[in-house]
Amino acid sequence: MAQVPTIDVQTLAAWLTGKHPLMMLDVRPLGQRMEWSIHGSVHVDAHDSLWSNRPEVLDVVALPHDLPIVAICAAGKTSLLAAAYLQGRGYDALSLEGGMQAWSLAWNTADVPVEGTSARITQVRRLGKGCLSYLIQQNDRLAVIDPSLPVAAYQRLAAERGAAITDVLETHIHADHLSRARALAEATRASLWLPAQRRTGFSANALFDGDEVAFGPSTIRALATPGHTAESVCYLLDERVLFSGDTVSLDGIGRPDLAQNPAGAEAQSGQLYHSLQRLWALPGAYWVLPAHTGESLHLHDGPIAAPLEALQDRFHDVRLSQAAFVERVLSRLPATPANYRTIIRLNELGRWQEDRDRALEVGANRCTIGA
């Protein structure tokens, strides 16, 4: 095979963020496509045909001659075959290096303007997974909430701002992605803050309901919201911003069943009901910033955020009785995330290897029950 041009995931993310004209051609099997995809890509189930030397299967798609075509597969091998065939047909075709496995770690950022706080808030979006983490900046200090990207990404952002990461906070023990909180805190000598619990095997500052972390002129207050997990908390910044973790997102609520037997899932569903009631009763105007979105991200959109009152209007199940709410939640559980038990165990240990273990995260986010 002749040398095929390739494109790395961060360059593709930059192109998409900047609305660079292109076409993305996903050549994976249909089952993989349905699991997760890059928003805006076109699909042809071409994997088997390409490996059987029948690349003409790609001819069924109307392809542009005036735009680059980025071929996408699971790991960056089948896409080389597709790009080579299209190159031979005169198209400007490239192969996405590492495929969707690499795309899992692509990211960009969006600032979140909020009145009533002097802090600068930035949403760090892990595009393929829909994981959302946050930077809170006060002058030359940075706090990071729910870091889901390799440590170097946050160090780079801090360096660009001329700031030091002084505090790292988690909303809960994650099941769908590996937590970088402990590694980030160690690399930057920051204070590590976790909800009070007995699950983790490493030292951290425990936050109980109502505890506060002073952060320059700002205050970050822990609000216990068990249900998705027993230890889940939300964080309130200056009584204006609600970092909601997995308890509630813009398109759903946190599932209560992971690593639970049926009785445990039912009990946590009841806890989730009360936690949502508590959030709905918060006084004042809050902006909700979740730790996840259940859908593929539009790279050039603004931050994933909404006023709390908008969610109060959208999530009608919270108005049900507790028994009806629990029954409805348990009847709508999606398929469990891949490798979630291993991911939980590694996050409880706080030790794992980035190059070896991050393949466990590949795949869709399934920690949310849709509204």
Which properties best describe this structure?
371 residues; Oxidized Rhodanese, domain 1; Metallo-beta-lactamase, Chain A; 2 domains; six-stranded mixed sheet; 12 helices
Strand order of the largest sheet: 6-7-8-9-10-11-12
Average pLDDT rating: 94
- What is the structural class? alpha/beta
By CATH reckoning, the class of the largest domain would read Alpha Beta
* CATH-assigned homologous superfamily of the largest domain: Ribonuclease Z/Hydroxyacylglutathione hydrolase-like
- Tell me about the largest β-sheet: 7 strands, mixed
Low-confidence stretches: none
- Describe the global form: globular
Proportion in β-strands: 15-25%
Could you state the oligomeric state of the chains shown? single chain
User: What is the first-to-last residue Cα distance?
Assistant: 48 Å
Architecture of the largest domain, CATH level 2?
4-Layer Sandwich
CATH level-3 fold name of the largest domain: Metallo-beta-lactamase, Chain A
List how many beta strands DSSP finds.
20
Helices, by number, come to 12
Report the C-alpha radius of gyration, rounded: 22 Å
